[in-house]
Specification:
single chain, 113 residues, mainly beta, five-stranded mixed sheet, four-stranded antiparallel sheet, 2 helices, 9 strands, globular
């Protein structure tokens, strides 16, 4: 696995200066009343009180007006280029109250739901 900065990803993918890669994440579980939707980009202000940023998208059937993907500070380690290796990614979320980062590994089966 390797961690790439936003600038490195832009250079690698040839993104134009006005374009930004955004990772949208949807977490579902039978114990949740509604899916948790997260975005890696503070695309727009969702509300002012409380101050919340996020990304509006129709991905996975979300209603952009009422079900935005909320901005979360996280980093992603993308899989390497090895053909025989399993398709996994690692997400790192900051711990509540500080204290570093918490890493979670997600395989292809976990992210395809």
């Amino acid at each position: 696995m390797r961690t790439l900065s936003l600038n490195a990803r832009r250079a690698r993918e040839g993104l134009a200066p006005g374009e930004v890669e955004v990772l949208l994440i949807e977490v579902t579980h039978p114990d949740l009343d509604a899916p948790i939707r997260l975005s890696t980009d503070p695309t727009e202000r969702i509300s002012t009180d409380p101050l919340v940023y996020g990304t509006r998208s129709v991905w996975r059937g979300a209603n952009p007006a009422t079900e935005p993907f909320l901005f979360a500070l996280l980093s992603a380690e993308v899989p390497g280029d090895m053909e025989e290796a399993p398709a996994t990614a690692t997400l790192a979320l900051p711990r509540a109250g500080g204290g570093g980062w918490r890493r979670r590994r997600a395989g292809a089966a976990a992210t395809a739901q």
